[in-house]
Design goal:
By secondary structure, the protein is mainly alpha-helical. About 45% of the residues lie in helices and about 10% in strands. It has a domain of about 70 residues.
Length: about 180
Amino acid sequence: MTMEHKAFILDYNAFREEISDSLQKALLTGDLDSLIDFINMNIDSLKDSYEGQPLDYSWETMIELKDAHQYGDFALTKFYNPAHSIGLGYEWEDIQNILSSELDETSLSMILGEPFGSENNYFDPGKMGSYFQSPEQVKKNWQIIQNLVKFKFKKIDNLSILIGMFQQAVAIEQGLYITF
């Protein structure tokens, strides 16, 4: 079964400023209080991370496994729209193979980004991988892909999805949240 690469435009700087410390603490200690407080205080700005529907005050009944990953998943929706994926879909492995012939290990971090949390407990609500790219990383990756297209690849059909993903994030100077 092939995994689907989903990417979302993320207000990365607001994420880092408003919730990353609480999420990091919850991942390290299991203390969920600050995440729960964040969700309750921001309920009008949050969505169901699966369906994209606005949350209401019964949101906690939707959480099956009460851990930092699940609470963090809802809290994170303040910074992205879960109903609008601009990811690579099922094409991500083909794109990675094209890039790896030119970029080696850089290709995977370009398609994914960086995990968040500690080595022993990275944030991963879907248990299939979850990654972040800052606006600076997005811009750097956009420049790399532009150079590859300009100097290496004559046919860009297979890379057009990747180009579009970065182009959208760069245009509004935002980061990316990538998940499977």
